[in-house]
Amino acid sequence: MSSKVKRAIFILIFSEFLVCLGISLVIPVMPFLRNELHLSALDMGIMTSLFAFAQFVASPIVGRVSDRIGRKPVLAVGLFLYMVSEVLFALTNYLWLFDVSRLIGGLSAAMVVPTAMAFAADITTKRQRAKVISCFQWRVDPRSRNWWNFSRY
């Protein structure tokens, strides 16, 4: 595997790592938001679940779009939208804007996570593909060491 492909895969894995942090980003600040904005448990539950719901709904649609227009534009827009959602989440004090931020974050996750895996499959050979895709396994099983020992590929 060339150094250019290794670098691309590292960037894909790092991008996916950042986006996957977004689904749980709200959890540490929930008690502060609840106390500061006097939110109910239902409000907090909806805000937490909107990210996953948006990702669930948008993933198949984004998959077709990335097949049609290419992986790089979808990844670039997805990372930009992720930045927008996190900045919006950091700067707002209104529940509806928190919800919009979480929806945008879920859409961006739907744009980055499956597209990054598809892009990794596109730039590797059939022989390398399983090893490279296993580098993305840390999302499912953090005990997996494949993504850590990336240099052996």
UniProtKB/TrEMBL annotation:
InterPro entries linked to this entry: MFS (IPR011701), MFS_dom (IPR020846), MFS_Efflux_Transporters (IPR050189), MFS_trans_sf (IPR036259), Sugar_transporter_CS (IPR005829), Tet-R_TetA/multi-R_MdtG-like (IPR001958)
Keyword ATP-binding belongs to the record: no
Molecular functions (GO terms): transmembrane transporter activity
GO cellular component term of the entry, any: plasma membrane
The entry's keywords: Cell membrane, Membrane, Transmembrane, Transmembrane helix, Transport
Protein's membrane topology: Multi-pass membrane protein
Residue ranges annotated for the Major facilitator superfamily (MFS) profile domain, each copy included: 8-153
Transmembrane segments: 9-33, 39-62, 74-97, 103-121
Entry's localization field: Cell membrane
Annotated family: Belongs to the major facilitator superfamily. TCR/Tet family.
PANTHER family per record: CHLORAMPHENICOL EFFLUX PUMP RV0191, PURINE EFFLUX PUMP PBUE
Protein name as catalogued: Major facilitator superfamily permease
